[in-house]
Design brief:
Elements lengths: L1 H25 L3 H27 L3 H30 L12 H6 L1
Helix pairs in contact: 1-2, 2-3
Length: about 110
């Protein structure tokens, strides 16, 4: 039963990773691409690692998978925020159809 549920999480993780990679190619500017990379790829990789944990159980590989999930959840949003803020400060323009610019509003 754990193998079936683990395979389900791995497949869902692969689907999230696929759409995250597709978003990196299709989205128009660096800020939208960062959102695709952060949300989809983080959820996809966490799904794959959780599926691995279900396969391996509380072995060395399973514990490492859980630790990698925690590390990924803690670091991916912070790094994406730092990249977006750095891109904005260095003058990377938003897409012409962007609705709002919160960083620019905070400057005023």
């Amino acid at each position: 039963m754990n193998e079936t549920i683990g395979m389900f999480f791995i497949v869902i993780g692969l689907v999230f990773d696929f759409f995250g990679c597709l978003g990196l190619i299709r989205l128009p500017d660096v800020y939208n691409r960062l959102q695709a990379a952060t949300k989809c790829v983080t959820m996809g990789t966490c799904g794959i690692l959780f599926g691995l944990f279900l396969f391996k159980g509380f072995s060395a590989a399973g514990i490492k998978a859980i630790l990698c999930i925690l590390f990924l959840i803690l670091t991916a949003p912070v790094s994406a925020h730092a990249l977006a803020r750095g891109a904005h400060k260095s003058g990377v323009k938003l897409w012409k159809k962007s609705v709002c610019d919160k960083y620019e509003e905070d400057k005023k």
